[in-house]
Amino acid sequence: MTSSRKTVLVVGATGSIGRLVVEEALRQGWAVRALVRNAAKAGQIPAKAQVVLGDVTMPDTLRSDVDGVDAIVFTLGSDGGGKVGAETIDYGGVRNVLAALGARTARIALMTSIGVTNRTGAYNRATEAHDWKRRSERLVRASGLPYTIVRPGWFDYNGPDDHRLVLLQGDSRQAGNSSDGVIARRQIAEVLVRSLTSETALRKTFELVAEKGPAPANFDALFATLDADAPGALDGVRDMSNQPLEDEPKRVRDDLDAVLANRSAKR
Ligand SMILES: NC(=O)c1ccc[n+]([C@@H]2O[C@H](COP(=O)([O-])OP(=O)(O)OC[C@H]3O[C@@H](n4cnc5c(N)ncnc54)[C@H](OP(=O)(O)O)[C@@H]3O)[C@@H](O)[C@H]2O)c1
Fold it and tell me: Which end of the chain is more exposed for a tag (fewer CB within 10 A), N or C?
């Protein structure tokens, strides 16, 4: 008997958010494929998920991992990896997985971060993590694939009654601490997976925080309150314009050109 369940590839499946995405996707009825770079961690993945081995910095290891997937959730992190980690994993990982997907289509959910457009804070100056995550967002927007980009606030700083999800746009909370907003890891995982099947989440970029109040009953209605990114735009709707394409490194512009060329080939 063949399964009619759709398949989602979770990239970052052994991470603090990715693990919960795997659980949530199984709960929501997906067939889950978990990308794991270290075989020793395969045992962390629930038995109901399929483990595939791959390292997002090694494109050759990714080819079969994307075969037949209907959706991809990215929850990569390069914790402690500094500028090199931010470029090769947070950004390069998204680039390489999209390249492996080639002309095929999949629904994308990409997790980046609240404050991702803040270039001048100490954190970004030290790591360039915001700049590289924003560049990964741009690749996804340029790909022409159906997507949702989720920029979570500070993980697991929630109070016990903070169940109400608040979706923001424009990335204007940039204190660089939990005063920007808090969100439980489980809530992030739920939003990422819900977005994959929601028409109203299509082409939307938003910051995600939680405040006091009840959990949402209807995610489609929640996503519907947001504006979509402008067609062809590289940045999220209402993002500040402070990372001009002409000032970007040539390798980044080349990557964008390659994604745009692939998009044209799909037509
Ligand atoms: N902490 C916060 O409050 C906060 C708020 C907003 C956004 N964020 C962002 O969230 C991200 C962290 O999420 P998290 O806690 O889930 O991260 P995490 O626990 O460090 O997980 C990162 C995942 O990426 C995988 N990975 C790293 N390099 C890889 C490679 N070369 N190939 C394949 N997989 C690779 C890791 O695999 P391994 O298990 O093998 O290492 C792991 O599965 C960070 O980028 C951070 O900027 C954090």
Answer: N
